[in-house]
Prior knowledge:
The protein is mainly alpha-helical. The protein has 2 domains: 2-39 and 180-392, no CATH class; 49-167, abc type-2 transporter like fold. Helix content is 68%, strand content 4%. It has helices at residues 2-12, 15-34, 59-69, 81-89, 103-113, 130-151, 157-169, 186-210, 217-224, 230-259, 261-264, 269-296, 300-318, 329-335, 339-352, 358-392; strands at residues 49-54, 73-74, 95-99, 121-124. α8 (186-210) packs antiparallel against α13, α8 packs antiparallel against α15 (339-352) and α13 (300-318) crosses α15. The chain starts with a helix and ends with a helix.
Amino acid sequence: MPIVRIAVRLIAEHRVLFVVYVLLFSVVGSFAAGSIGPMSAAYEAVRPVVAVVDRDNSIISRALTGHVAATSEMVGIADSTRALQEAAAKNYADYVLVIPSGYGDELARAARAGADAPDLENVVSYTSARGALMDERVRSYVQELYAMAAARPSANTEELVRLVDAAQEAGVTVETVDAEMPGLPVTYLVYCQFALYALFGGIAAIVGVGLADLRAPEVRQRIGATPVPSTTFDAQIAGAIALCGIAVWAINAAVGIALYADELARVPVALTALMLVILFALMLVGMAFGFLIWQLGVRRELVHAIVNITAMIISFLAGTWVPLANMSAEVLAVARFAPGLWAVSAMEQLVRATSVTSELAASVLGNVGIVVLFALAIAAAGIAIGRARQAVA
């Protein structure tokens, strides 16, 4: 099959693209996974830096201040507009709470009358989530005070604070149970999510650039002079693209297994195998997109731009850059029309599992089937465009 050999040789001549798109993005995926950090057996609560300006000085306001101080590092701040503005602009504290005058009495009256609770003023830091978490703690404490005052209208404020503090001290017993067979590590999940870029964009770029020479007039004339039917020609090109795709998939899979060999050694082999099947399906989509680009006759200079933009969009819609849980319903609706969402959803199912059941395999393979359908649809579009170009020629 001379055309297969020619196509493979042309792709191999651009081996630098394998380094850039495959190895480089594999390293990027490993760095992203490494940013998660190792799992710790001990838990140490982070204490945010908090400032409280108490303009009320009531029993309730002092109790609220004490509740905040118990879980934070308190700093002093002047009760002035300038000081509050500087606290926000210069990030002196993760959270600044301002309790207005008369707040305690208004809260108790509102609860007993069934009215809305008075508002608290606050400044939440923009540099971390610690301030937002502290704000949730403050709101939770105030809601408990409100609920207690509504349930016990005859109780005085001292009794209300005592009851709420007692409820706050009551904790939940937590016991850690070690699973007999651990699941796939989250770091490996992150690596596989970033592999989407290499398997889709990398393969498409390598194929689009590597096979561009087959569109040269002199090469087309030489091929046209040989008795090779168009179907055979397309089949041989598809074979060369398949060899390229399998090579990229094998490199990416081998790097991932080598990087996380210690963690994966404790995981059921079937879970890792299913993850590789998902990556294989993504590889098919990359092959199909590369074939489509080649059939469109895109100039070599434009291949990289088209491939990278498309890969970034698909990676975003898959939840690689932003978790799917943080996306709006409209974005998720659009993401369903891209292969990345289905692949990453299957990956997340594997990470949550500790063993392979028939239900898990059916669900994961169902998502894999949808990804394969995307590949078939893109490949069919490439074949149709190739036939149309031949008819025009």
